[in-house]
Amino acid sequence: MTMAPARPAGSGHEARNNPAPPAGRAGAGAYPCAMAVAISVAVCGAALSLNGVLRGWNWFWPVLTTVLAVSLTLAAMRSVRAGPLLVAAGGFISLAAVLTLTFFRSSSFLWVFPTGATFPDLGRLMRRAGETVLSETAPVAPNAGIVMVVCAVLGLAVILVDALAVPLGMPAASGTGLLALLVVPAMIKPQSVGAWSFAATAAGYLLILACSQRFAPDGRIQPGAPRSPGLARRAALTGAVALVATLLLPLAIPGFDQGTFPQGSRLNPWGGTTGLNPMITLGSSLRAPDGSGRITYATNSTTPVYLRSVTVDNFDGDSWGPDDRTASRVPLDGRIDPGYAVLADEQVRVVTAVDTGSFTSPYLPVPYAPETIRGLGGEWTWDPATLSIKGTDTTTRRQEYVVTSTEPKLSAALLAQASGPVRGIPDDFSRIPGNVPDIVKTTAKTVAGAAGTPYQKAMAIQRYLRSSEFTYSLQSPIQGGYDGNGLSVLADFLQQKSGYCIHYASAMAVMARLEGIPSRIAVGYAPGRLTGATITVAGQGALPEYEADARDAHAWPELYFQGLGWVPFEPTPSRGVVPDYAVDGPAPAVPDTLGNNDGLVPDAAPAPSASSSATALPVPGGTGSGEGDAARVMPWLLGAAAVLGVVLLAAAPHLARSATRTRRLNPRSPDQAVPLAWNELTDLGTDYGVPAGPSETPRAYSARFRETLLGEPDGMDREAHQAVALLTSAFEHHRYGRPDDGSPPTRQRVYPAVQDIKAGVAALADSLRQNATLPRRLRAAWLPPSVIRRLGLLVDVPFRAAGRGIRKAFHVAAHVRNSRSPAQEGAAQEGAPVGGRPGATADDGVRGTGGR
Description:
With 852 residues, this protein is an alpha+beta fold. It has 25 helices and 19 strands.
């Protein structure tokens, strides 16, 4: 008896009968852990970009814990060969557990299981996060609410990236999830995402691609099969080209500024709908080319009206921010009291009717100081310290209301007399941080130190900032960005002497505090423009209508004078309206410490008068600003991006099918050419309405395929028939033939060349397209059933697993019933009830088991 030679392990029939696990079920080896590490590196790298959106680094440790917990859970479940949906469910459960452990430990069961008391805490943190986003400036303090939201978003990003890279088999598409994480810092931070974060994210993304290629969990590469020698070279070349294109593209598109990821190049898609976020999106609003967030108002005031939205008074040195004082806010259901006595001989009462339109903000724009408001919808509260009005679960969108406000009739003489010590206002408005740069202190002392009264000091500071040494610019390169307002940015501003309203207002407010004058910053709208229409207001008659939009967003300082209250000033040149009491003459001299070579500031031009300023409000995008081209190009870019997104979404099945066909027809190993081509043949049959049966042999399916889809074998169909016959024969030899074990050449398998296979598949695809109807061709091309069927199989996995579990439970129950004691068996033979059910005998149980 001749013994067959032993086959090496993993070759021949054993290799064919034990294929590598499919995508999403790869549990063997180091693949799950390697992919988890790659995804963690990518997501944590993207999270680094949030430094600057969130202050400091204390927030990063909860983020790191969340990302690692979710990633390792996904890897562990994939290692035990759990189904794709079970793996995703495990990721969601682990995310909920780690968030509960981190933020809701006191109200949970065993620290990781939420209870009924957890949900009120969750709502509280969500509200706090929402208030932070709407009302604080970047970088914001990392309170528990905003950190919880960041952790939740990054945990969901891990699940999304993992789903794209592993079960869906689209590792390249996982970059979309990483890109989504970089959008927020790219639009908010002056320095954008930052070089280190971008490099770490890119490295993690490349690791994801490398793991998908190296481990090939879908069985495309057999162990020991040779890999393409030029793969690393092509990958390096592709990455280099993409990097160069990223750096050079801004130079070719109008509206971009200098540097990598510059502020001027960024889009703010929600700028027109979220309203005026204090200090965060003020620069973006001013640079909006379309003038979004339009507000109209009519007033009986004889001077232009500023619509004040929120007061920014909390300054810790790093940034200005509003203090909502939630605990002390008062419901808006009556008269608003400023809380201090106004000693002016004459006060002016102003009636203003406001229509906010699509402007959406939690803060209500009103003239200062409001006394009564009529016509508002929803619940509103006001802050006794600042008189700012904020909605409670409501916004300004589509609100129409009438405001009655009262202000003292101020004059330079009246302000010069208000030199008494300040009493009756919180210390928050006078607090000076301990890290004020020397240039700020020196400037304040030089400009206003010699002045005698608070009014003289205030006028000296305003005069200096409005001098010819300073220029108004939305694009001044302050710290590589434009929207900072901390002390370091203020120091740069005083050196470069170029910026916009946020920098001028911040400079005057800080220098006023250094000189002993309480100060704060008001954020809202400059007076805007006349529309030419009139609005009839009850008791006032027809009043002229004004309009203001995002381009009129403005910030200005308010200084406190005892007996007169909060008095606005206008230090920003060429913007807003200078009040009559603040119009003054030339600027003072400034020493060399402020950056002038000769130690003196040239004589300043006279400050613009109220009338000239009111009629010449500049609009961003004018000549010489460099924004005219951006204003014209940006809407086209946004429209093109939206259209491109829709087209890519619609073309996704077609692209997935084309990518699969390309991979199959370009195998990495010649040994894989035949089975991959057969898979392509069966998918073509599925796309054109003839799917393979589960128990159908290759020869039977081939005959049905040709008879149904190809018709008579003549013309081009003859070439298609020959291609099907060639592939069928080769696949039968591949699956059922003798393995290559060193036998004589006549007994070895001989496969067609790869080029012949590719030509045969191409001829077959052409014949199918020509023989099919137009609806069938369109469906096969753009909504291929072979792709949709795979998605359906992924969705069906948990239901099949549940069915197997139910069947197993029935079999176990039947086994228990068939394992009765002798007494029970005797009772059953006598016809006694079994299991307490009348009329049920042992024969019933046997028949039931057999039936099952």
